Amino acid sequence: MELNPQGQSWIENYKLLIGSIVPRPIAFVSTESREGIRNLAAFSFFNGVCPKPFIISFAPMFKTANGGPKDTLKNIEETDEFVVNIVSESIVEQMNRTAPEYDFEVDEFDVAKLTPIASVVVKPPRVAESKIQMECKKVNILKFGSGAGAGALVLGEVVRMHVEDSVYREGKIILEELAPVARMAGDTYARATDLFELKRPTL
Ligand SMILES: Cc1cc2nc3c(=O)[nH]c(=O)nc-3n(C[C@H](O)[C@H](O)[C@H](O)COP(=O)(O)O)c2cc1C
Hints:
35% strand; seven-stranded antiparallel beta sheet; alpha+beta; binds flavin mononucleotide; 5 helices; Pnp Oxidase, Chain A
């Protein structure tokens, strides 16, 4: 099978994207509008970039309905700040409740019944129930295309990290305690439990 993405619809390419790049970690992103309305949304096009400077990235697509920016992107463009909250199995149901595209005025902390707690450096609150929270300042936003199927890449510098004591030992994150969930295609999620070791060869 050989496929030419340029000859396919964006939906066909989207299915290839979400089925091929798996499992994907989930950034549960809290932001605040200029007027102080809180927002919370999940993004599985999420990854680290480098530790010095400490940069992470996630990619909100534009809204399918009207091609406009999702609330998260709008807020970051306006305020330059956001928090990435890591999703453990314990909050996956609450995370899922934030997935519909609610009106801009809706506070998804209320919808999900999650607790906002004040951040230390940035204005948007953190999710208290999340075991790892990263306060971020926007570094850059790259945009690709326009309308439905198009998207943006948000790059942020982590300016403060909050790690629950139970998941932190000697500078490392304890995977079993974090119990992170990952997104596959559609409604399927994965746990990080079927693990195996592979020693890296030396030169
Ligand atoms: C687990 C999960 C992962 C998601 N990943 C993405 C993503 O990577 N990019 C995206 O644009 N939307 C993604 N979504 C959909 C957004 O969360 C959804 O459009 C949300 O309503 C956007 O909210 P906002 O308008 O408040 O920013 C994901 C949803 C879920 C539940």
